[in-house]
Structure formats: C-alpha cells, structure tokens
C-alpha cells in the first residue's frame, strides 16, 4: 500500500511501517472512514481514502470527502481509478450522503478529464490553508 502511494506523491517523506500500522488502526475505529484498495492478481493497483462527515445542515444528511486517489503508473488508463471512485461513491450513497467531494492539486488536463469521466463535476471553488511549516 505504501509503495502504491509513491505513485501519488513521489517525493513523499518515508516513515516506518510501525507508524503506518498505527495510522491504519485509527482508520479502523474512525466511524465513516475507509481506505479502499483495488487489486489485480493480489497486487494493489488503485486506492482512495473516503471519509463520511456528519452534517448539521440538509436535514442532517452527511457528505463524503475523497482524498489520496492514486493508480499505479503501470496500471493507468485501464479503468481501475474510475472503479475505485465508483466504489467510494457507492459506499457514500449507502451511508446516506448527499454528495461526494474531492479536490486535486493537479491542473493537468488528463487528471481533470479523468475526474469528469468518473462523474465528478468542477462546480465549486476550492481553497486550502496549510501550516507555515508543512508537516509531512
């Protein structure tokens, strides 16, 4: 799984397997969160993180956030990324979410076209604020 993430952020700061296991355990107890993993012949080829967020508007209907969407470079353009996003969306719909959101830091046309082919529309403006000294 960690090797797959190198195809998302090649210069990601590595950390220990023990730390990764601790983080993964948090996902297991964080209600509404999941890391979806697509495999082919036992090899991870695509993944995304899904978080279901409780909501005090829209009659209490939750919404979902998708992050860390990645497909192994050797497995791109085969539909795996779309399938993992479809699975995340289905899980969100099953949890009663009224929308699924994601943001991308990429402005590459191919990336934006991929998200549109996966059913996402660029209808909002995203903003972010990062710590002055980014923690990796």
TrEMBL record:
Residues 1-136 form the N-acetyltransferase domain. InterPro entries: Acyl_CoA_acyltransferase, GNAT_dom, GNPNAT1-like. Transmembrane segments: none annotated. PANTHER family: GLUCOSAMINE 6-PHOSPHATE N-ACETYLTRANSFERASE. This is GNAT family N-acetyltransferase.
């Amino acid at each position: 799984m960690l090797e797959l993430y190198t195809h998302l952020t090649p210069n990601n700061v590595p950390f220990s397997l023990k730390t990764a296991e601790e983080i993964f355990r948090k996902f297991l107890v964080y209600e509404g969160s999941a890391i979806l993993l697509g495999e082919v012949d036992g090899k991870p080829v695509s993944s995304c993180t899904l978080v279901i967020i409780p909501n005090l508007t829209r009659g209490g209907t939750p919404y979902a956030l998708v992050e860390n969407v990645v497909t192994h470079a050797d497995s791109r353009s085969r539909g795996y990324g779309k399938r993992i996003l479809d699975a995340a969306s289905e899980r969100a719909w099953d949890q009663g979410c009224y929308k699924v959101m994601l943001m991308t830091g990429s402005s590459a046309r191919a990336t934006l076209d991929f998200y549109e082919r996966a059913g996402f529309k660029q209808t909002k403006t995203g903003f972010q604020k990062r710590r002055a000294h980014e923690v990796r």
